[in-house]
Amino acid sequence: MKQRIITAIIAAALFIPFVIYGKVPFTILVLAMAIVGFYEILKMKGISIFSVPGFLGLVTLILLVIPKDWSEKVVELIGYSSNLMVVYGLMMLLLIYVVLVKNKITFDEVGFILLGAFYVGLGFHYLIETRNVGLEYVVYCLLVVWTTDSGAYFVGRKLGKNKLWPEISPKKTIEGFIGGIVIAVIFAVGMQLIYPFANGYISLVLVTIFASIIGQMGDLVESAIKRHFDVKDSGNILPGHGGILDRFDSLLFVVPLLHFLHLFSN
């Protein structure tokens, strides 16, 4: 526990200034975290990021992560009509590579690489886009995710009796799941009281409940992936916390869905 707290404090001290400043430094930091996260998910499958398919997947990831104005410049530079066409071209190269190496890498592995690139890439892309919309919105997202995670942990530890999904995450409880939502709502309302940013308290509470549930589902998805590959953590870059995906699994679900619902549109 002591190591977890120390790591969390140091990580927050390094991460928060980038969040506040935003712009290019924040984009580069998020891109770096996305690359590490992609490396972690490929490693679980036993695919090297330095292999040909791993490299093609990495390029796909980068194109998915970078903000829209950056990707437009890349597309214009190489003469394609859209970013999607570039990603499609990379997918074709991956499939052709399977044929060239006579199935030494399988179509299943290509599918895993592409799904991993989209899973990690789009999640971190919308983290960047959320910051570009406004500091208050990315603070809100981080607040909901972090308070949900902490609330679920402490409430589950104190009051948890009924297992939520023991086959995937044995320590999570229904009481913790509900407690995480309640704590997230309390902190979101507190943020609204200090710095009004939402249209109203009813909509804020409903959105927070939704975001908290989705965030916890994202955490369960990551747990399911790790259980499938029989690993405890996605990585070890954060002592006591595991890897990048272990810490950002909830956020990778929350920020894209809030954008898809146009909750952060200008």
From TrEMBL:
Keyword terms of this UniProt record: Cell membrane, Lipid biosynthesis, Lipid metabolism, Membrane, Nucleotidyltransferase, Phospholipid biosynthesis, Phospholipid metabolism, Transferase, Transmembrane, Transmembrane helix
GO MF annotations, alphabetized: nucleotidyltransferase activity
Catalytic class of the enzyme: transferase
Transmembrane domains' residue ranges: 6-39, 46-66, 78-100, 112-128, 134-155, 176-195, 201-221
Compartment(s) where it occurs, according to its Swiss-Prot or TrEMBL record: Cell membrane
Pathway: Phospholipid metabolism; CDP-diacylglycerol biosynthesis; CDP-diacylglycerol from sn-glycerol 3-phosphate: step 3/3; Lipid metabolism
Predominant subcellular localization, coarse grouping: membrane
This protein's record includes keyword Membrane: yes
InterPro entries noted in UniProt: PC_trans (IPR000374)
EC numbers on record: 2.7.7.41
Membrane topology designation: Multi-pass membrane protein
Keyword Transferase: yes
Reactions listed under catalytic activity: a 1,2-diacyl-sn-glycero-3-phosphate + CTP + H(+) = a CDP-1,2-diacyl-sn-glycerol + diphosphate
Stated family: Belongs to the CDS family.
Name the record gives this protein: Phosphatidate cytidylyltransferase
